[in-house]
Specification:
- The complex is a heterodimer of chains A (116) and B (116).
- With 116 residues, chain A is mostly beta strands.
- Helices cover 0% and strands 58% of the residues of chain A.
- In chain A, a hairpin with a 5-residue loop joins β4 and β5.
- Helices cover 0% and strands 46% of the residues of chain B.
- Classes of the chains: A mainly beta (116), B mainly beta (116).
- At the A-B interface, β4, β5, β11 and β12 of A face β4, β5 and β8 of B.
């Protein structure tokens, strides 16, 4: 079964510093990949998605992710962290599960803390 | 509706009681997913409905858990004889077309279940 691995359950950065959240997927075929964000006591919302149109994907709030097939990675970055970025971030993969259906599997999440 | 709606938002139940959680997906969305999120944990897949296909129940943790969906509308997740380890936030998501893996999933706010 296809899956995603997020390295680091908790990442802390200083305000203004680079944000790097890591995600690796297991697949022999490049799947559809997503990053979602969950703010405290809220549901999940989409940050960005990779659908094979371009390897560098730009999302909301200044985030972007680069798909690297050779490394089976889809790491999330933001050049300068803001206090409002403190949240939990989930990487997800949408593998084909047969009969015209696509599953949606999430990593365990990375909690981002931003230090003033 | 404008978004995915889940009810109740909070549920406290006694151990051994049955509970029913409801999800109203976005109108027209053929795919519907249920996830469980324990405190401080990632999203654990429970079940997936896609149109009129047989649901993917591979994530249901025990036979105490079941779910139904009426056509492409409301879904209910039922937990029988609840246990304390069932305490979690139960999240529902819907997608416009689960037959295309590149579409965004929209999440409800979740139902926080507490078993005492």
């Amino acid at each position: 079964a296809q899956s995603v691995t997020q390295l680091g359950s908790h990442v802390s950065v200083s305000e203004g510093a680079l944000v790097l959240l890591r995600c690796n997927y297991s697949s022999s075929v490049p799947p559809y990949l997503f990053w979602y964000v969950q703010y405290p006591n809220q549901g999940l919302q989409l940050l960005l998605k990779y659908t094979s149109a371009a390897t560098l994907v730009k999302g909301i709030n200044g985030f972007e992710a680069e798909f690297k097939k050779s490394e089976t990675s889809f790491h999330l970055t933001k050049p300068s962290a803001h206090m409002s970025d403190a949240a939990e971030y989930f990487c997800a993969v949408s593998p084909y599960s047969g009969a015209g259906s696509y599953q949606l599997t999430f990593g365990k999440g990375t909690k981002l803390s931003v230090i003033p | 509706g404008a978004g995915v709606s889940q009810s109740p938002s909070n549920k406290v139940t006694e151990k051994g009681k049955d509970v029913e959680l409801r999800c109203d997906p976005i109108s027209g969305h053929t795919a519907l997913y249920w996830y469980r999120q324990r405190l401080g944990q990632g999203l654990e897949f429970l079940i997936y409905f896609q149109g009129n296909s047989a649901p993917d129940k591979s994530g249901l943790p025990s036979d105490r858990f079941s779910a139904e969906r009426t056509g492409e509308s409301v879904s209910t997740l039922t937990i029988q004889r609840t246990q304390q380890e069932d305490s979690a936030v139960y999240l529902c998501a819907s997608r416009l077309d689960g037959g295309r893996g590149n579409t965004e999933a929209f999440f409800g706010q979740g139902t926080r279940l507490t078993v005492v």
